[in-house]
Amino acid sequence: MKTEKLKINFPTEIVEEGEVKVLVPKLSAFVKKSWEYAPSKAPVFYNPVMELNRDIAVLAMQAYQRTLNRQITICEPLAGCGIRGIRFAREVENIKKVLVNDINEKAYQLAKYNVEFNKLGKRITVKNEDANLLLARHGAPHKRFDAIDVDPFGSPTPFLDSAIRAIRDGGLLALTATDMAPLCGVHPKACIRKYGGKPLRTEYCHELAVRLLAGCLAITAARHEIGVKTVFSHSTDHYVRVYATLQTGAEKADESLKQMGYILHCFNCFHREALKGDSILGHNGKCIECGSKMSLAGPLWLGRLSDREFCEAMEAEAKRVNLKNSAKINRILTLVKEESDAPITYYILDKICDKLSLTVPSLKRICNLLKREGFQAFLTHFSFKGLKTNAPATALANLLQRVACET
Ligand SMILES: C[S@@+](CC[C@H](N)C(=O)[O-])C[C@H]1O[C@@H](n2cnc3c(N)ncnc32)[C@H](O)[C@@H]1O
Ligand SMILES: [Zn+2]
Hints:
Bound molecules: S-adenosylmethionine, zinc ion
Helix content: 25-40%
CATH architecture of the largest domain: 3-Layer(aba) Sandwich
Order of helices and strands: EEHHEHEHEHEHEHHHEEHEEEHHEHHEEH
Oligomer: single chain
CATH superfamily of the largest domain: Vaccinia Virus protein VP39
Shape: globular
CATH class of the largest domain: Alpha Beta
Radius of gyration: 22 Å
Number of helices: 15
Strand order of the largest sheet: 5-4-3-6-7-9-8
Strand content: 15-25%
């Protein structure tokens, strides 16, 4: 297929990612200043930084396909140049069909070209319409997809209802959110509007972002009498991702809603509490450690953010394939797996040490000391300076003071 015939009349180049080669906008041709965000300047969206996001999506789709042990259908309703859907079709085994769609005519043309370029015309269908319209037309039981990957600009919430309706019972829904300013509490009103939960500008705001997105999914799914199980989630660079399987049934929806609640945070002593259901009603809003007034985040998802078995299945897939980013991916998969059982929220030692005017000790040392004192301690993928523990904030602060005195 000729690019002229497809009206691709802007600068392009071929890039290689995973096992595919695709034609993408030549980003350097669309920026005048070095600080400009090239992907959004180009006529078709393509972001090379999201390669890791797509790598992990391929691993998750493969891990999910193996749980079914049959051919699966995948929909990517906001596809840009098509690179993600094309990778699913080429790199995930047992794909029956991938439906790739974008509302932008140029993106559609480019995705169509890329499908032919990769000789995947039989496995991929390319569409050019509004994502909600497309998903709504796949809401009938026999038309639903096994998996849907919603990867938009900003928030995925405008597409949640229709994506939930277009997934079959037990299907996998993957969501990206890049609107970190609302989710991390810089624009709290926007977060409440979009996700129905209040964010908080804390050192663990990236975990809150994932929990707000997962919570919004659980509440939206519950309206359709569907329950959710978050099997994998991560926060990387400038975005968060949630992968959840959906189970039909009012009881399943009720079970998910039991995982909703609030997090109370003390900005004075770093103490925090996670309160499921309506247990918040019995709280007087004061910190039990220092008596200060606490701040509130939520409602948000307080259940597990990932499933250990699913993480192990993704790790097995990562070993099988040869990805450019394998070192980074393996580190994320291991940390996410380990922290699937960890307490909610994390501490940043630098922040506590800064407040107490202490030098920052090694994270590993503090983890070992906490464990020796009978507490749980986990590293976290959310921050390389972060630590998850069930030790109260004051116990952690005391430990840091003792360590500082010894050194
Ligand atoms: C972040 S980009 C997608 C990137 C792609 N998923 C990837 O992995 O490279 C978001 C895309 O959504 C498309 N889009 C925005 N609103 C849409 C809508 N209502 N329906 C369909 N596509 C839409 C944009 O044209 C853009 O190409
Ligand atoms: Zn306090």
